[in-house]
Design a protein that fits this description.
The complex is a heterodimer of chains A (about 500) and B (about 130).
Chain A (H helix, E strand, L loop, with lengths): L63 H14 L20 H7 L2 H4 L11 H18 L3 E3 L5 H18 L7 E5 L5 H8 L3 E5 L9 H7 L4 E7 L11 H10 L3 E5 L19 E3 L20 E3 L11 E4 L5 E4 L16 H37 L4 E2 L9 E4 L10 H11 L5 E2 L9 E3 L7 H20 L2 H4 L12 H6 L7 H4 L2
Chain B lengths: L7 E2 L4 E6 L2 E6 L1 H7 L2 E5 L6 E2 L4 E7 L3 E5 L4 E6 L9 H4 L8 E5 L11 H11 L2
Classes of the chains: A alpha/beta (about 500), B alpha+beta (about 130).
């Protein structure tokens, strides 16, 4: 039983780098900085005396090289889109083009101050004004707000606008929102935060929501429907136009979760499908970094109906071509984010759109869908598809063919780490038991996709020949399999100082 | 798979043990098997009125968060408080120590809509992937 996958796979085994937490590296009295000790001597306390702390905070005491080595070593444990394929379904882990980073670091953008008055930030305002219009053009909306800081924030912002609109219409009793059972968990969460109640809508037998199911669920308590298109099964919601018509006719509004916009960009526009509001994930569709390299950014596009309720201030252009911030918006839901949003992300998304242009954006979408379908076709002979419907930008498999081996989706995910790949999204969407949700994005070459497929198929073979190889995986990562149940039942989220006492 | 003959079942994989005018409710062996290691459970307070088919709580595993649906309408008269600190009981003993709530039902007629063990067995095998 060979725990090391064949040499053609990138693999995971490298330098062993055991690394304690930085507090454990601490040596009393050691330091890596030199500040003048008397810097604050003579500064009046102005009545704050009682707040003076008596003991120094217990901070790690390390030298500069120790600090640098500690964090650099930890960083080398990382797996990232810069080290290999990241097929995490629904997350759209596109490569972050370096040109975006270059442009975002131009001093004029990088050092612009959020409190600078409009007169001295005309260029920044122009970029945002243009980006709003590019996003509106790509998605078929009337207007766009860039304020929301992430996708879920965009959902909440849109629901707040929907609530404001319904109240004005005298329809404030509408407080329930239809959400398909394949939705991202953020949809019901945003509903609840907005004072609404989520009502589950069953996905139809073909992997999409039927207009008939929506018609049956619509009544005068329903404020809106939240659709994801394509949905999290990677299936296009083909009845969306009819669904929008029904919801509008019965007094509701239509929200679209735009997390999967990367499979529509340049090809089809949610605004044309009757959608009233949709968030964009700039950190998915428009190639800006996720998480640690982030932050995220979740602009929202709206139809004519919701324009009056957009968050303020709004960036406007006067007759002389100057940009200004309009705060006179009596029907606006108000500000949803400090300043004007995640400006650094706007620069990156703007650069991406301008770099690719209309044809390039369309090609990116086509390649994303082609790559997903290539992986789907190549895995099919071995792996069981969760849904037969055609895939868009991602394909969902499950672990049913492994049943005789006792191995599960989780074991497959862990074994992939030994092969040198980040695992796909697992156990989501919830309506696909044992889901392995694979989204390669347009970033990957055919060679990389072939290697990933070979790894998946090789792991399937291992499951039948030596299931323990999967059950005990990962074998070659810095840490072995973690006890996720124990971590969730007894979370220890802070460093316990008393335990560090030597 | 374990499906006790004396219990009633819902399509959402809750079980109900009928005793006089109350039922005891939990989730089935199949449900916990699908969920995997359960790490958190949220149950209503005693006195809460529940509606048949509406959610009465939440169960969370390392894989998924899932709503709990009331098999019948009625009033919650007792809650298994011990479960909050020992959610693993749901995996270990789904039909015993991991009972969740006792409900005094308001309409005995609703019981007839629940499945018996044979029907639930059939339901699970036909809906399994």
């Amino acid at each position: 039983m060979d725990i090391t996958p064949p040499k053609k796979f990138p693999g995971r085994r490298g330098l062993v780098m055991r690394e304690p937490v930085i507090f454990e590296r601490s040596t009393p009295g050691r330091q890596g900085f030199s500040l003048g000790r008397d810097e604050f001597d003579g500064v009046p306390l102005n009545g704050l005396d009682s707040h003076l702390r008596e003991d120094a905070p217990v901070l790690p005491e390390v030298s500069e090289p120790e600090a640098i080595r500690h964090f650099l070593r930890l960083s080398q444990w990382n797996y990232s889109i810069d080290t290999g394929i990241y097929p995490l379904g629904s997350c759209t882990m596109k490569f972050n083009p370096r040109i975006n980073e270059e442009v975002a670091r131009l001093p004029g953008w990088f050092f612009s101050h959020p409190l600078a008055p409009p007169e001295v930030m005309q260029g920044a305002l122009e970029l945002m004004w243009n980006l709003e219009r590019y996003l509106a053009e790509i998605s078929g909306f009337e207007a766009v707000t860039l304020q929301p800081a992430a996708g879920a924030h965009g959902e909440l912002t849109a629901l707040m606008m929907i609530r404001a609109c319904l109240r004005e219409r005298g329809q404030g009793q509408r407080k329930r929102v239809l959400i398909p059972d394949s939705a991202h968990g953020t949809n019901p969460a945003s509903c609840t935060l907005n004072g609404y109640e989520a009502v589950e809508l069953k996905t139809g037998p073909e992997g999409y929501v039927t207009a008939a199911a929506v018609a049956a669920a619509m009544d005068d308590t329903i404020a809106a429907i939240m659709m994801t298109n394509p949905n999290t099964l990677g299936v296009f919601e083909r009845e969306i136009a009819e669904i929008s018509r029904i919801v509008h006719e019965r007094g509701g509004l239509v929200y679209c979760d735009g997390a999967n916009m990367n499979s529509l960009m340049g090809m089809a526009r949610p605004g044309d499908m009757g959608v009233d509001a949709m968030h964009f994930n700039l950190h998915k569709t428009f190639s800006t970094p996720h998480g640690g390299g982030g932050p995220g950014s979740g602009p929202v596009g709206v139809s004519h109906t919701l324009v009056p309720y957009l968050p303020g201030p709004r960036i406007e252009k006067d007759s002389s071509g100057r940009f200004l911030l309009n705060t006179d918006l009596p029907r606006s839901i108000g500000r949803v984010k400090a300043f004007l949003g995640q400006f650094g992300m706007f620069v990156r998304a703007y650069a991406y759109i301008r770099e690719l242009g209309p044809d390039g954006l369309k090609l990116a979408t086509q390649m994303a869908v082609l790559n997903a379908n290539y992986v789907r076709a190549k895995l099919r002979p071995v792996w069981n598809l969760a849904w037969e419907a055609p895939s868009m930008h991602e394909a969902v498999f499950n672990d049913t063919h492994l049943k005789p081996t006792g191995c599960t989706t989780m074991d497959v995910a862990k074994r992939l780490i030994d092969y040198g790949f980040h695992p796909p999204t697992v156990y989501f969407p919830l309506i696909a038991p044992g889901a392995l949700m694979i989204e390669p994005t347009e970033t990957e070459s055919k060679e990389t996709l072939d290697l990933f497929v070979d790894a998946m198929n090789s792991i399937s073979k291992e499951a039948f020949e030596s299931p323990q190889l999967l059950k005990n995986a990962p074998h070659q990562s810095p840490v072995r399999r973690l006890d996720e149940a124990r971590a969730a039942r007894n979370p220890i989220l802070t460093w316990q100082m008393e335990k560090a006492a030597r | 798979m374990s499906i006790p003959a004396e219990l009633k079942y819902t399509k959402d994989h809750e079980w109900a043990r009928v005793s006089g005018d109350t039922i005891t409710v939990g989730i089935t062996f199949h449900a916990q098997d699908q969920l995997g290691d359960v790490v958190f459970v949220e149950l209503p307070k005693a006195g809460t009125v529940v509606r048949k088919g509406a959610t009465f709580g939440v169960v969370e595993s390392t894989k998924a968060v899932s709503d709990l649906y009331a098999p019948v309408s009625g009033k919650v008269i007792e809650v298994n408080e011990a479960l909050a600190d020992a959610p693993e009981q749901i995996n270990k003993d789904p039909y015993g120590a991991a009972w969740m709530i006792k409900v005094e039902f308001s309409d005995a007629g609703e019981l007839s809509s629940l499945m018996d063990a044979a029907a639930y067995q059939e339901y699970v095998s036909s809906s399994a992937p």
